[in-house]
Amino acid sequence: MKTQLVAGETIVKEGGANHQRGAETVGGRLYLTTQRLIFESHAFNIQTGPTIIYFQDISDVEPSWTKFLGLIPLAPNSIEVVGREGREHSFVVSGRDEWVRAIESQSTKTDG
């Protein structure tokens, strides 16, 4: 992982993932820490660099479907992370229900 962790932050879960960024599906790794969700792209993508989502910026996390052309459901293997400002982040992951539960668990711990 290239992103620096902050004091007291630890990695809780990690795995390969694809992040839908506009028309490009960006391959990389998704990390769940005790404070945020971090996606780091592989260097060979057109759109590189991390996407960092702090728990306080998340309004909802739910299982979703990967869609062909953004319209036709293909597989139930994605999670949708919705930001408080309305921005949606879609990640294709293995074990989507486990990811949803883990993100909800960690974000609840930081809320209170």
Task: Write up this protein.
14% of the residues lie in helices and 54% in strands. With 112 residues, the protein is mainly β.
Secondary-structure blueprint of this entry?
Elements: E1 11-21, E2 24-33, E3 36-41, E4 50-54, E5 58-68, E6 72-83, E7 88-93, H1 96-111
Antiparallel strand pairs: 1-2, 1-7, 2-3, 3-4, 5-6, 6-7
What key phrases describe this protein's structure?
112 residues, 14% helix, seven-stranded antiparallel beta sheet, globular, single chain, mainly beta, 1 helix
Q: What is the percentage of strand-forming residues?
A: over 45%
Structural class: mainly beta
Major sheet attributes: 7 strands, antiparallel
Order of helices and strands: EEEEEEEH
Separate helix tally: 1
- What is the averaged pLDDT score? 88
How many strands in all?
7
**Helix content class:** 10-25%
In short:
By secondary structure, the protein is mainly β. It is built from one helix and seven strands, in the order βββββββα. The mean pLDDT is 88.
